[in-house]
Design goal:
- It is built from 16 helices and 25 strands.
- It has 435 residues and is α+β, with helices and mostly antiparallel strands.
- It folds into three domains: 136 residues, no CATH class; 148 residues; 131 residues.
- The strands form five sheets. A nine-stranded mixed sheet has the order 24-23-22-21-20-19-18-17-25, covered by helices on one side.
- α2 packs across α3.
- About 5% of the residues have low confidence.
């Protein structure tokens, strides 16, 4: 009968509903929650003493969302529908999902087991069961502290009620870094996303605490890296080689570390590493971390030129701007900005077309001189504060390839609008534009 692997209920549910996901990646635990409630409501309430396991009543830090978060492996940081988000999957690749869709894995709903004839799939299933067990154990750090009264750190539930930030008697702060997966028998991968995001590591000098598990002990070893080293490179993943005792990231940067006892003697307290924290900018870092632009899961949007032609031009290829008449608009074939405006005097102007203002940054146009002095149109309302927030982090290095002229349509008046930005003093001038 092949191989049989017993699955925790939440892992069984995740695999069962995986074939109903639009993509092979789960971008958000909410994506899984919606599918689970729609397709398998009888499996959603996994505990009788909880009332918030349904999606509509689910809290941000509990319920079904929390269950799914301990099943999934963090895979990266992407843009979906112009929003930066983390994305996850069952395992480090889509092998299990694909195998279930192809019928290589059969699920037993009576005993919550998975059956397969493939030894590789059996091993992958057992690995995910083990990963879930480790994540589940490490997620309950409150229970660990209750069982280990002599542990030198305590939760700071006042400043950090929802995340595992620990504090020493010397006022040192530590954030428990999330175990991600075993990349190999001796290589443990950690997910740094929860550490890097937001403002917490600017407000407090928080050192990352790595709980290195073994296959049978979720709390086997404790190590700490100085926060200033992480703020220097801001790695999204950090690996630990259990044999060589090396910490390194995916860019081959190595990190010095301390045992927990050593860190209590040598590392700075919550007020330390101020220069590194002052220079840290999560809004900028998250753009650097984002993977290649991913497919949208919502309705497929029309191409930018169609929107520009319909919404801005009203199907006419002529208008007047800066007192000059545009007599033709052609789609560029140069691999640079999308269109070329031709004026009545014969001069031309490059223009990039985007759905959203920040797509210009996401597509990394600012890094190329091809977009030098190009104008930018977006099918989005004008918001100067938003424009400044999006483009100002790149001015010092890429000023020549940052747009100065922005075109859009006012959704209230349905009128064309054009604005010229002086990036040197952050002033704004509205430009007359006529049909």
């Amino acid at each position: 009968m092949g191989f049989s692997v017993s699955l925790p209920k939440i892992l069984y549910l995740t695999l069962l509903i995986s074939k109903f996901a639009r993509n092979e990646k789960y971008y958000n635990t909410n994506d899984l929650i919606k599918i689970a409630n729609n397709l398998k409501p009888e499996l959603v309430r996994l505990r009788k003493d909880k009332n918030d396991y349904k999606f509509l009543d689910d809290t941000n830090f509990g319920g079904l969302r929390g269950n799914f978060s301990t099943v999934l492996t963090f895979r990266g940081f992407v843009n979906r529908n112009n929003t930066y988000i983390a994305y996850y999957g069952l395992g480090s690749n889509d092998r299990l999902f694909n195998a279930f869709k192809k019928g290589e894995i059969i699920l037993d709903s009576q005993n919550y087991c998975a059956y397969t004839n493939n030894i590789e799939l059996k091993n992958l299933l057992e690995k995910e069961v083990n990963n879930f067990t480790i994540r589940e154990n490490q997620a309950h750090i409150k229970k660990f502290l209750e069982k280990n009264n002599n542990f030198p750190l305590k939760r700071d539930t006042v400043n950090f009620p929802k995340i595992a930030v620990l504090k020493s008697e010397n006022n040192q702060y530590f954030l428990r870094i999330l175990f991600n997966t075993f990349k190999a028998d001796n290589i443990v991968e950690f997910n740094m996303f929860n550490y890097l995001e937001g403002a917490k590591i600017k407000q407090f000098n928080i050192h990352p605490l790595f709980v290195v598990p073994s296959y049978d002990n979720a709390w086997e070893e404790f190590y700490v890296i100085d926060s200033k080293e992480i703020l220097l490179n801001h790695p999204l993943f950090i690996n630990f080689d259990k044999r060589t005792k090396r910490f390194y990231d995916n860019n081959k940067n190595e990190y010095s570390y301390y045992t927990l006892d050593e860190s209590l003697e040598k590392l700075s307290n919550q007020s330390g590493n101020i220069p590194e924290r002052l220079s840290y900018d999560w809004q900028k870092v998250r753009v650097e971390l984002v993977d290649d632009y991913v497919e949208r899961t919502s309705e497929v949007q029309k191409d930018e030129f169609s929107l520009f032609l319909k919404n801005f031009l009203n199907w006419k290829k002529s208008f007047s701007i800066y007192g000059k008449d545009v007599v033709d608009i052609t789609v560029s074939s140069s691999g640079g900005p999308d269109v070329i405006l031709t004026f009545s005097g014969g001069t031309t102007q490059k223009m990039e077309l985007e759905h959203k203002w920040n797509n210009y940054i996401l597509h990394k146009h600012y890094t190329s001189q091809v977009w030098k002095d190009a104008w930018l149109y977006a099918d989005e309302e004008w918001d100067f504060d938003k424009i400044v927030q999006i483009f100002s982090p790149y001015l010092s290095k890429y000023i020549n390839s940052i747009p100065k002229v922005f075109l859009c349509v006012n959704n209230k008046t349905n009128q064309k609008e054009c604005y010229e930005v002086d990036w040197n003093n952050l002033t704004l001038k509205k430009i007359d534009i006529k049909d």
